[in-house]
TrEMBL record:
The chain crosses the membrane at residues 7-27, 33-54, 61-79, 85-102, 123-142, 148-170. Pfam families: DUF308 (PF03729). The keyword Disulfide bond does not apply. One of its GO terms (cellular component) is plasma membrane. The keyword Transmembrane applies. This is Uncharacterized membrane protein HdeD (DUF308 family). Keywords: Membrane, Transmembrane, Transmembrane helix. InterPro entries: Acid_resist_chaperone_HdeD (IPR052712), DUF308_memb (IPR005325).
Amino acid sequence: MGRKAGWLALVAGVLALVLGIVAFAWPSATLKVVGFLFGLNLLIVGVIRVLQFVFTPDSPVAGRVLGVIFGVLVGLLGILCMRNLAGSVTLLLVIVALGWLLEGLAEIFTSIGHRGEGVGWRIGLGVFAVLAAIAVLVWPGLGLATFVFIGATTLCFVGIGGIITGIAGLRSRDPVAV
């Protein structure tokens, strides 16, 4: 991971952590607010994933293409959440879970075989996001409060992991990426 990707991961991590803390601090939020917060996170993560793979040439082409595709899909799911087209908790849960699943898979697949600092954290983040998505998809009848708890926990862990990954990227001695 180069310095540019490190900065992007750090920004995404900080934003995810802040959104997770906001979700914990405001557990009685309405469906619109929850949809907006989680959608905003998915949109930001999707855009940052696209930027990471467009502007960091140190990744293999197949990994970059996969990262950009997953980033665009995650961003689109974020837009769906923010528009709150569903109006129901169940559809919101499924949309957010699909976003987490895609983001987790993208993190895992683009990290495997990639050498550098923070790769273990990136794979761990991907696994955590996939497990959170599976939990939400297996129990789509979760209430809004339970979903907010799971979602806020996921955002906090992913945010902390993103911050650690970003710092590792910034500390890397990769001479190619500036």
